[in-house]
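SUBJECT: A protein chain and its fold
Encoding: whole-number codes for local backbone shapes
RECORD BEGINS BELOW THIS LINE
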Amino acid sequence: MRAVLLLAGLGLFAVPATGCFAQKAPVVVELFTSQGCSSCPPADAFLTDLARQRRDVLPLAFHITYWDNLGWKDPYSLQAATSRQQDYASRLGDGQVYTPEMVVGGVHAFVGSDRAEGLDEISRAANAPSVPLRLARTGETLTISIAQGTGRGTVVLIGFDSHHRTPIARGENGGRTVLESNIVRSLDVAGKWTGAALELQHATPAGEEFAVLLQAGDGRILGAARLNGAGS
């Protein structure tokens, strides 16, 4: 089937020793999907398998809004998700958006139900260098630490729910019950990184779990880290 921003207070602090950072950043896999799209359940199932089986992958489901008027309003649709996909469409394609679409590493886009291509792209992206990031929580505050490196990027804080099972009453998937995983509930720009060591603090956003992405101006994911809702 084809077709909010909160700035955190910025401060340059000494970043903890590199031993505090994850040794290897997870590969970021973004799925643009909708409960109103009959082609999306196989892609949702692929993302669920990645969420359950691959700790080296950060899979995120972005539920778009442009199918909400076709008989079923997706309860997890976000305008920020639609805007993010439109940005990718401008960078990676002809400006057209569709579902299901998967983007790996911020640079490779393809039909989200294509497991073979998805696994190939994940393998390739795993070899890309990354900027070390760390995400920690104290109470209702998240601390994002980024190591010194080369380049520039936007720090994107994401809140997501681990999974939901939804009975769909109408639309193309009417009568089905769908299981969806790592559903994005919020996207916040936490700050900008210019290559120097950086520490940011941000209130916990909407969502059960949290992740942070460092994204270059051309869309490349330069680094990523995740944190469950329980703590650091």
Notes: Helices lie at 41-53, 79-92, 115-125. The chain is about 15% helix and 40% strand. The chain has one domain: 10-227. Residues 10-227 form one domain.
